[in-house]
Design goal:
Blueprint: H1 10-13, H2 15-25, E1 32-36, H3 42-54, E2 57-62, E3 75-79, E4 96-101, H4 107-117, E5 121-130, H5 146-164, E6 170-175, E7 181-186, H6 205-214
Parallel strand pairs: 1-2, 1-4, 2-3, 4-5
Antiparallel strand pairs: 5-7, 6-7
Helix pairs in contact: 4-5
Bound molecules: S-adenosylmethionine.
Length: 219
């Protein structure tokens, strides 16, 4: 849709996400953050500013070498895939307040990363997951992309499946600002239960029958 094109800019796509995250973590002294996905360093720069304010530390992981992006004693860059779990050996303080996931936006990969590093998150800590809103990517929207639409929809529903099996272990909020952010809060130290498909009765026979009955001509 041509009239939406003006929304495809950084202020609309990134600012709301960072403001949303900030509202939950702006007051954690000595905050310890683990970030996956650096690229141009937008989120890294945002987290580093917070670390300066809160006397915290940030460890960022990316499979491409972005080690020269920032020079800051609070920052450690680890050049690694996120699922090469040996990377944790390079981190001294493995007790994280925040984990930020913004690497491969594929539901099973996101689940794998979430479940592994969740074990190193403090109770009361949060995992933020980027890119679960598909609306910017639907046909004729301002970032029209079939791949991103489908993958974000799938990731969104995977998150719902994870939450449904962990109602007592996790608190879930989802923000649709920009390209969307999942916000999981860890409620206890129990191991996360595995997600399962949730039956959807919209496509059940009874609901489909209702659809057809309503459309029958009146007598
Ligand atoms: C969307 S960008 C990150 C954007 C960044 N968070 C920001 O706000 O500017 C995704 C990054 O994840 C990295 N990446 C993709 N798959 C990865 C993986 N399996 N392990 C580690 N890094 C990965 C890419 O190299 C890329 O730099």
């Amino acid at each position: 849709m041509e009239k939406m094109k003006h929304l495809n800019h950084i202020d609309f796509l990134y600012k709301p996400k960072f403001e949303y995250i900030k509202s939950f973590i702006d007051n954690i002294p000595n905050i310890n953050i683990l970030e996956f996905g650096v690229m141009k360093g937008r989120s890294t720069s945002f987290f580093l500013d917070l670390c300066k304010k809160l006397d915290g530390t940030l460890t960022s992981v990316d499979m491409n070498d972005h080690s020269k992006l920032f020079s800051d004693e609070r920052w450690t860059f680890i050049h690694s895939r996120d699922d090469d779990f040996k990377l944790l050996d390079k981190i001294k303080n493995k007790n994280f307040d925040i984990i930020y996931i913004d690497t491969l936006h594929e539901p099973n990969h996101v689940k794998k990363i979430l479940y592994y590093y969740y074990n190193f998150l403090k109770v009361g800590g949060r995992v933020f997951i980027d890119d679960i809103n598909w609306l910017p990517y639907v046909k004729d929207s301002f970032k029209d992309s079939e791949y991103s639409e489908v993958i974000n929809r799938k990731t969104f529903f995977k998150i719902i499946e994870i939450y449904y099996q962990n109602l007592e272990n996790l608190k879930l909020e989802i923000s649709f600002g920009g390209t969307g952010t999942v916000n999981f809060e860890k409620l206890n130290n129990l191991k996360l239960n595995e997600p399962h498909r949730i039956r959807n009765r919209i496509y059940g026979l009874r609901n489909l029958a209702r659809f057809f009955i309503r459309r029958q001509p009146k007598m």
